[in-house]
Specification:
By secondary structure, the chain is α/β, with parallel strands linked by helices. It contains eight helices and ten strands. It has helices at about 20-30, 50-55, 80-95, 120-135, 150-160, 175-185, 200-210, 220-230; strands at about 10-15, 35-40, 65, 75, 100-105, 120, 140-145, 160-165, 190-195, 215. The protein is globular.
């Protein structure tokens, strides 16, 4: 988007690498065309081999899944990612002239009140949105990795939901998403939530068709909020 037509600048910080080409088609649908996008990634300075060598996941229970700029999946433990992500967020706030920042992570984030601009947390936006829409509903949550499922269940049960979980990565074999969608069809739920910013709108549509379940991605809620804030 040219600067002549842009009225606001939205910073997008991914927990993987920028640019997130898998996001661009959806942003054309979800964001007002006058919002200019600026991207950074917490892992921009590293190769996948360096990440795997320097930040081995091993048996750590709290892991996050994202995407390298070439499309390969990357998995990193949440405690290892936190300082890298913090550096990327602060660099964007100070150097990129953005009006707000969206962090492509559904994990826990600090408030960042000291930055002087809004930093939108998908976790908080999604939790409050789903609590408002389905206050006593049965929630089915799809995570990218099976090792995330235990923490996912605990988090959403603490938010007051009856929860079932399953897993399939948005960055892997499409057949895995279809397998998970068929599994979802056999589980009782009022809403199927795809718990990663990596799930695309086209994946959401396919999963909804195969599962027969009302299905939502964090992209829908988070970028709707960004539109209200900026457009």
């Amino acid at each position: 988007m040219s600067e002549a037509t842009a009225t606001s600048r939205l910073g997008i910080v991914t927990i993987g690498q920028a640019p997130r080409s898998d996001l661009h088609d959806d942003l054309a649908t979800l964001l007002d065309r006058r919002v200019e996008i600026v991207e950074r990634g917490a892992l921009d300075a590293l190769t996948l081999e360096q990440i795997e060598r320097c930040y081995p996941v091993s048996d750590q229970p709290q892991v996050l899944v994202s995407r390298m700029r070439d499309g390969r999946q990357v998995t990193i433990a949440e405690p290892d990612l936190e300082p890298l992500l913090d550096t990327a967020i602060r660099a964007m706030a100070s150097d990129d002239g953005v009006d707000a920042i969206v962090v492509l992570c559904t994990g826990e984030l600090p408030d960042y009140h000291d930055l002087g601009l809004p930093v939108l947390s998908p976790k908080r936006l999604v939790r409050h949105g789903i609590q408002a829409l389905f206050p006593s509903g049965r929630l089915l949550v799809m995570s990218p990795e099976s090792r995330q499922m235990e923490n996912t269940r605990a988090r959403w049960e603490a938010a007051g939901f009856s929860v079932e979980t399953l897993s399939a990565s948005p960055y892997g074999d499409p057949a895995e998403l279809e397998r998970a969608a068929h599994e979802a069809a056999s589980l009782e739920c009022d809403l199927l939530y795809l718990d990663c910013m990596g799930y695309t709108l086209s994946q959401r549509q396919r999963i909804a068709e195969l599962s027969g379940r009302r299905t939502i991605t964090p992209r829908q809620l988070v970028f709707s909020a960004a539109n209200l804030l900026l457009a």
